[in-house]
Amino acid sequence: MGTVGSAPRGAASRARSGSWGVKLLAILIVLILLFLGYCYMVLHWSYSTGERAGWVQKLSHKGWICKTWEGELAMMSMPGTAPEKFYFTIMDDQVAAAVNRLNGHRVSLSYEQKVGIPTNCFGETEYYVVGVRPVEDIPLVPAPSGGAAAPAGTSPGAPGSSATPGQSSAPPASGTSGSGVPGGGVPGSGMPGSGVPGTGMPGSGAPVPGGGTAPPAGAAPGKNP
User: Fold this and answer.
1) Nearest to residue 42, comparing CAs of 122, 116, 130?
2) Residue 59 belongs to what domain range?
3) What is the mean pLDDT of each run of 10 residues along the chain (225 residues)?
4) CATH number, domain at 112?
5) In whole angstroms, how far apart are CA 116 and each of 34, 69, 187?
6) Is residue 53 situated within a structural domain?
7) What sign results for the dihedral spanned by CA atoms 19, 25, 31, 36?
8) CA 49 to CA 114: how far, in whole Å?
9) In a domain, 101, yes or no
10) What are phi and psi of 44, to 5 degrees?
11) How far, in Å, CA of 4 to CA of 165, rounded?
């Protein structure tokens, strides 16, 4: 009797343990499905989107099991200021190749911010780059506002000249007072003046043959002293 009664109890205990194993397996499968569904949702839903412009300084493919592209973008608001670094992740190999081709140039990265990713297997940052395009470079050193000032006393268009605009550097005309060149009498020097042009007549005070001086033009002839 004891042997017959113990058989149903053993079968019932095995049935209960088997049902608990099935329940645990079902719970585990449900948890895995929930985890996969959550990962799919956070990877395909973006908290924010935007663009960042700067110079790509670093891009590397790393990871123990899940390999992702991790990079750095140096951003500068104004020339001469310290750059700010923007860390990003790339999951698409084609986008990573496009970024590598523009390495060292100023680019604009289109990114999606994903919040709540449960592990870093999908990337070390929450900013995932989905596109890249080149943009115009900005000068890192400010350009001078105007040209160099000309030296004092230099006229425009004549480098090294000390003449100022409006002044003439031509030599004085011939026959002026004090030049010592014949053509005009020098006051107080006793030198004869020039004749009247076109008349052949000597000027006032010119010596004449036989001594004396010729009277001035228009004067009445008189006796010599």
Assistant:
1) 116
2) 47-134
3) 55 68 89 90 88 92 88 82 89 93 90 88 91 80 53 46 46 44 46 48 49 52 47
4) 2.40.50.140
5) 15, 19, 109
6) yes
7) negative
8) 9
9) yes
10) -105, 5
11) 134
